[in-house]
Amino acid sequence: MKAAEEFGPWLARQLRNAGKSQTDLALELEVTRAAVSAWIVGRSVPRDETIRRIAEVLNTDLETVHTRSADAQLALPVQWYHRPAHADGGREYGNAAAFAFEADVSVLAREATQNSLDARLDPAEPVRVRYTLHELTGESLARFREAIDWESLRPHYDALTADGGKQSKVSRTIAAGLRDMYQHDRLVLLRVDDYNATGLTGGDYEDGLFAAVVRRQLDSHKRDLGAGGSYGLGKATLWATSRLGLVLINSTLSEPHEGRTERRLIGRLDLPWREVDGRACAGPAWFGRPDPTTESADVVRSWWADEATVEKLHLTRESAAPGTSFLIVGAHDVASLLAVNGAVDDEETGEDDDSVHRMHARLVDALGRNFWAAMTGGGDRKPHLEASVRTFRNGEVLIPEEHVDPAVAQPSRTRALRAFLEGATVDRLTGPGQVARVGVPLNVPLHGGQVRGGVPHEAVLLVTGADDADDRHNRMVSMRGNRMTVKDSAVTNIPIGTNPFQAILLTGRAAGPEAPGAEAAEEFLRASEPPEHNKWGQTEELRLSYSPSAHRRIAALTAAANAAVRDLVAVPKAKRRNGGEAKIAGRLKVGGGGPKKARPGAAAALPELDNVDALIDGTGAWSVTVDLRMAPGVDTDRPVTPVAKFDVRSGPRPAAPWKELVAISGCEVVDGSLQLSPGSRKAVFRGVTDVSRHPVRAQLTGLVVELRSGKGE
Q1: Global model pTM greater than 0.85
Q2: 188 vs 470, more confident
Q3: 579 with 505: CB under 8 angstroms?
Q4: C-alpha span between 699 and 686 (Å, rounded)
Q5: Residue (of 324, 548, 533, 356) closest to 445 by Cα position
């Protein structure tokens, strides 16, 4: 059997764990210190008889010494180390980095998956990311608490919740998590695994990925200009998503550390300042093996665990491929509770029986919405990412693994990007399913505050017709090299008669390997992103690295891209004259006029007509796609009926009955009315009028779309 680790590094660690020196071992074995030193540095190996004696000294068996897949039995036990309070009396009542994001699994999926993309090991292969929800109850929960030494943690939680958790927001959140666990005997684990990633390489304390994630704050340790993260804040979402502030980590390294790569474990706990048994603790704590090389005997470091320990901690990885598994203990999702209850205080309300189902659905949605481009391949280029979500309850499959398909999540955008990767774009849109491509200039500013000059870069704009399955039409999403959606905004000043479309703006490396100025654009746009990486604009880093007015170059890029979209989707004049898609700008009204104030004692509020896209199709019928927004107070149990009428100058408006009424998202059509989905914040439907019942041709009049409560009342 091949040993997991070289003999020298393994023996050196066993001596450190035992508090022994090389001289001590030499004396016990009755050999020279030079012989022990030669074993440590790998110049020689001991004879079989000496190995047997080494096993006796280390109080272990021969197999452990030969295979070296685990530490010897004399190794110090795994335990929790709580950082002592500051000597000057300073206190922190939580990790400020965690407040940069909401406790939202959609935010977690965005930030954690972005970090996995940034850590991709083989650029020719996708990084595989899997999210696993696991609800523990009863005996399964008891075994897990025993594995993490819950009884030693309990006094620290009790100290924070002695007053009901009123000390700070973090304390209140923890108090709610503990109540939910004890009252319902339930705990939700959320594990994030990535494969074909670097893993947490480097020492426990020196500069490296391990220390940046586990030991430090605001250290991103990302040097690649194409990386999505740059603030070192995204990792805080892992702890922010835990109601208990607890995350366990198992990493398989791409580069050996101490001669090993598999099952490097550590745990980190983020709590506020507290006092336990007369000892004040600063906040963070770590779960690991005591490090005899440090000044304090209590300090712990990562350890190389055996397979049984990894299984008990629910951290077993599916293969030896490099990457990291993060286990969020006590995962919760405030946004999914909001969607159900309308308004909920996550610090006071426990999770319900359907919480893992909603979290599963929201993870799938977030991955598809933010990373559809990274999951799209074409031609000879493989996707950057593969993602999936699965859910268990006490080890049994509750929801089978669901692989996120970008073509399902974003059908038209996926089609457009794939056409670009395969070189199948056109200059103009002349038929359905086509993808038009045009270049958009960006003059990247120079470093050091220079206002004039710059590096020319040509971004790529893709435009294609929208599919009915798209959630919103006439949008432009923007991204750079890592292909994560940064901006998602409406294209302005689009004529109403325009066919629904989707646009994609590819900048930096995303514009292709041959795009001029790609590296300069990557660096510039990365500096213009806030910690959430959800827009491009003025930031402190942008002002410091470039000129104070550098953000205007981004505004110019956006304006040029919008103008290019309008040019690509414009209906040709000849086509308008021939009557196919008539010019209808100014002839569509929403709701029959301005908004009306609710009357006292009136029925529940109706949804708001948020956006209406309309055209006159080839048959002469009005075809409208309507976005509804559900404001607080909307009764989703009560159906609503969309009504179309012809706009006339005087007298009653003639009805324009629907020939077809189709629910797209957030609702369903029942007997000619819309039944809104419970908990949905928006709904989209499409309606086509019946030409045979038009009193006049659609080209000669306008259209009014109204909503009525109930089934036509």
Answers
A1: no
A2: 188
A3: no
A4: 20
A5: 548
